[in-house]
TrEMBL record:
Domain of life (superkingdom): Bacteria
Organism this protein belongs to: Streptomyces spectabilis
Name of this chain's protein: DUF3168 domain-containing protein
Length: 137
């Protein structure tokens, strides 16, 4: 009987933040894309946070991610969120060596002013379905 290799799921936040950094820069919007709120806080930035997910098959991960876009004004936060939302739709393919199959939005954009800083913020949630990689023991 052959041992099956273990499957290691990718760090979905790292894959998505890396993709969004490049995609936003290519779109003329080189803003920080982070997993934690930076100190000091930039005037405009995007945060990607994993809030759960599932493993629909033994070799895939469907990460549920929150996307938050901060800016100086409400209209700028909205526009940054809309751009991130649009760019995320183009992520399927191989990104950073990881196969990304699809994106499913699970919560559309919402106005969500930051309760700590009062900085304008918009947010949405999506599931990003990607393939793990085999790891031999």
């Amino acid at each position: 009987m052959r041992n099956r290799p273990a499957i290691v799921m990718p760090d979905a936040v790292a894959v998505v933040t890396g993709y969004l950094r490049s995609a936003l820069a290519a779109a003329g919007e080189p803003v920080p894309v982070v997993s934690r709120i930076p100190t000091p806080r930039p005037h405009r930035f995007v945060r990607v946070e994993r809030i759960g997910g599932s493993s629909p098959t033994p070799v895939t991960d469907r990460a549920r991610l929150d996307f938050h876009a901060w800016a100086t004004r409400e209209d700028q936060a909205h526009d940054l969120c809309a751009l991130v939302r649009g760019l995320l739709g183009a992520i399927p393919g191989v990104r950073g060596g990881v196969t990304v199959y699809s994106v499913t939005e699970v919560g559309g954009p919402q106005w969500l002013p930051d309760d700590q800083s009062s900085q304008p913020r918009y947010a949405f949630a999506a599931e990003v379905h990607m393939r793990g990689r085999p790891f031999s023991l």
